[in-house]
Q: What sequence folds into this?
């Protein structure tokens, strides 16, 4: 039932964009997704289960965007800039991502409990919905570790990359709250990014 699950999550996300989570009704989410309320409860168990799955999906989507940015072309600084720009854009467009990255949950949003998460999990997102959700500290670690893995090469190993990658992630998060000025994200990242050597 993956199609029904995604439809329900899409409907919940749309409902959340229109009204606070406390006013989102399960019957309306089910109707918008074109399934029965029983199907919704079978899939998520409760409104809290739906909230956890929705937050999990948005977290996974954000991390997939990080992976795409890191897989792009360019030197390490350019790829870290792409991650920082993705972080800023994703947080600007998606209130759930912004809340997950900053820890600033408003009363409009569902705020499922957070707990430390492992760096990687082989369990599909669908079955991880009931598992722990990343805290802002977890996101820093998760993105930093992905960046270190993607950028490790002959010019720089993990030991040399860990600090600049973490600084880049923390700069990106600070730009969510206070957008950068002249020169933008690239100017900030360039000052800390590892450089390729010929």
A:
């Amino acid at each position: 039932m993956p199609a029904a699950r995604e439809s329900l999550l899409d409907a919940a996300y749309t409902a959340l964009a229109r009204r606070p989570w406390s006013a989102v009704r399960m019957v309306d989410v089910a109707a918008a997704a074109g399934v029965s309320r029983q199907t919704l409860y079978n899939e998520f168990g409760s409104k809290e289960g739906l909230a956890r799955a929705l937050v999990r999906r948005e977290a996974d989507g954000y991390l997939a965007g990080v992976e795409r940015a890191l897989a792009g072309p360019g030197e390490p600084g350019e790829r870290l800039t792409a991650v920082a720009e993705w972080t800023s854009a994703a947080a600007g467009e998606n209130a759930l991502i912004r809340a997950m990255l900053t820890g600033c949950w408003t009363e409009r949003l569902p705020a499922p409990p957070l707990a430390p998460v492992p760096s990687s999990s082989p369990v599909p997102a669908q079955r991880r919905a009931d598992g722990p959700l990343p805290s802002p500290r977890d996101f820093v670690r998760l993105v930093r570790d992905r960046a270190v893995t993607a950028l490790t090469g002959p010019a720089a190993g993990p030991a040399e990359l860990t600090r600049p990658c973490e600084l880049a992630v923390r700069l990106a998060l600070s730009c969510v709250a206070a957008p950068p000025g002249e020169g933008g994200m690239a100017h900030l990242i360039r000052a800390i990014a590892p450089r390729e050597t010929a």
